[in-house]
Amino acid sequence: MTMPPEAAFGLLLLALVAWMAIPLIPAISELLQPRDAAPLNAVGNDAGQLTYFAESFAKQAMQEGLLGTMVPARLSDGSPVRAHSQADPIRAQGKPIRDFVVLMDASPLPEGAVLSGECLARLTVNGSASVTYRALLGQRDVILGPASTVLRWVHARGILEVGERSKLLGRATSDRQITLAPDVSFERMEAGIIRVVGTGTAHVPPATTGVYEHFEPGNADSMGVNYWRVYGDLTVPAGCALLGSVIATGNVIVKSGARVTGSLKAHGALEIEAGAIVTDSCAARSRVMIRNGARVGGPIISEFTVVIEAAVVGSATIRTTVSAPTIRLLPGAVVYGAVMAAEDGRTTR
Predict the structure, then answer these.
(1) Is there a single domain that holds both residue 240 and residue 330?
(2) How far apart are CA 121 and CA 141, in angstroms?
């Protein structure tokens, strides 16, 4: 019996669709029945390349002789160079400064200045209020005054201090530390340590797991050694230790003083209460809240919002990443590594 042409075409089309869907089977399976609870690494390849523009700029500065005794009047491409110093300062003016600017000493720029070209600071930058920088490389510390704006990137060889009400509209990096005042908006930051001004979290060495009451989740399937899939919500009781990693189909709460020696992944919200410790990553589809005095050793990832109070993420020896569309860092928050806000990053009071 001969198959009708319409049926043959339909079978061929169905086979083609099935063949194209084969690579998507693991992702579809994870979406319908989440099982992955392994520790997560830093999000995005860009996290390790935030200093790319600054490094390229530094090489250009060396090649152009901008770090020598005499600063050239023009770059090799003909762009004019403007030197600023106490002896010959840039005066206040009502239009943007389009020249390549070299800050020869620590003399502040005029308040409200707009540098629409690149800027190289040979010594410490003592930024005035309301100065706009297109791109800024500081060979030492960079201190941005209140209501400063960085349009593309800023990098400090030393410490980067950002005044209140400032806007970091690109990449902000430091070889050492970034210190943020309240009401600073940001997109992508990276440093050995990122700290929001305010009362910090006292370092209290965690107790060994032997002093905790051991806890294992109920309503869960064991996916391996110290690895559970929890159906619904999970609460790790105060003073207890969960030795392993968990993925939950609902919300996850780690109560005050509890400890998790693994990673957590929630398909709802995730909250680490005051004084609790999670040694590895925290990920959630909804909000992630890290309360005062809590510590998270690995990356924090949310598809919605991350809020970090006076808590510590990462460590001096292990850098990590905080990544979400919206990020709020409260006074006393400390992150060792990178903070990546895809839509709205801000420090609050």
Answers:
(1) yes
(2) 9
